[in-house]
């Protein structure tokens, strides 16, 4: 038996929504700002499918993911179809004066015994802080691109 654990983080970015969307929706670039993502490969014959590899020192997981919803400049939603069970969405909010907000919601399945340990413990905090740091790296990259234009 397994439980789904969910995390949600967001960041405000001093960059226009067009740039923020273009940067994030290029999935193969994601390892540049996501610490635990080692690689993302789009499948040439099925562009809605991608192969992911997560590596964090001791752990290594792979999965095949399907993009299930794309609304340009608004949402990019996925679910795994093989390998590590996960699903989630990245939501984009454009604001006045060339500012944006990026919100990531990520859920993954873990065995019940581990879920009880992670739900409110320090491991949950580690995942939350890692995801927030990923978004901060994304913010810095997007803002740097926006400045150099």
Task: Give a quick precis of the structure.
This protein has 149 residues and is α+β, with helices and mostly antiparallel strands.
Overview of this protein structure:
The protein has 149 residues and is an alpha+beta fold. Helix content is 29%, strand content 50%. The protein is built from 3 helices and 7 strands; from the N terminus they run βαββββββαα. It has helices at residues 17-25, 112-118, 122-148, and strands at 2-13, 37-43, 46-56, 59-71, 75-83, 86-95, 99-111. It has a 7-stranded antiparallel β-sheet. Strand 4 and strand 5 form a beta hairpin. Helix 1 crosses helix 3. The radius of gyration is 16 Å and the shape is globular.
Topology summary:
Blueprint: E1 2-13, H1 17-25, E2 37-43, E3 46-56, E4 59-71, E5 75-83, E6 86-95, E7 99-111, H2 112-118, H3 122-148
Antiparallel strand pairs: 1-7, 2-3, 3-4, 4-5, 5-6, 6-7
Helix pairs in contact: 1-3
Helicity range of the residues? 25-40%
* Morphology: globular
What's the count of strands?
Answer: 7
Strand order of the largest sheet: 1-7-6-5-4-3-2
Structural class: alpha+beta
Number of helices: 3
Please tell me the overall pLDDT.
Answer: 92
| Uncertain residue ranges | none
End-to-end separation in angstroms reads 50 Å
How would you sum up the major sheet?
A: 7 strands, antiparallel
Q: What is the H/E order?
A: EHEEEEEEHH
Q: What Rg, in angstroms, do the CA atoms define? A: 16 Å
Strand content: over 45%
Structural descriptors:
single chain; 149 residues; alpha+beta; seven-stranded antiparallel sheet; 50% strand
């Amino acid at each position: 038996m397994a439980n789904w654990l969910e995390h949600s983080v967001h960041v405000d970015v001093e960059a226009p929504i067009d740039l923020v969307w273009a940067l994030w929706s290029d999935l193969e670039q994601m390892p540049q700002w996501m610490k635990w993502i080692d690689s993302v490969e789009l499948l040439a014959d099925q562009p809605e499918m991608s192969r992911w590899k997560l590596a964090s020192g001791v752990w290594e997981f792979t999965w095949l993911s399907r993009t299930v919803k794309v609304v340009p400049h608004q949402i990019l939603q996925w679910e795994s179809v093989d390998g590590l069970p996960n699903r989630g969405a990245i939501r984009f909010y454009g604001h006045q004066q060339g500012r944006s907000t990026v919100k990531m919601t990520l859920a993954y399945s873990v065995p019940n015994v581990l879920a009880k340990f992670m739900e409110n413990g320090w491991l949950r905090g580690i995942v939350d802080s890692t995801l927030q740091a990923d978004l901060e790296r994304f913010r810095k990259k997007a803002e740097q691109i926006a400045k150099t234009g």
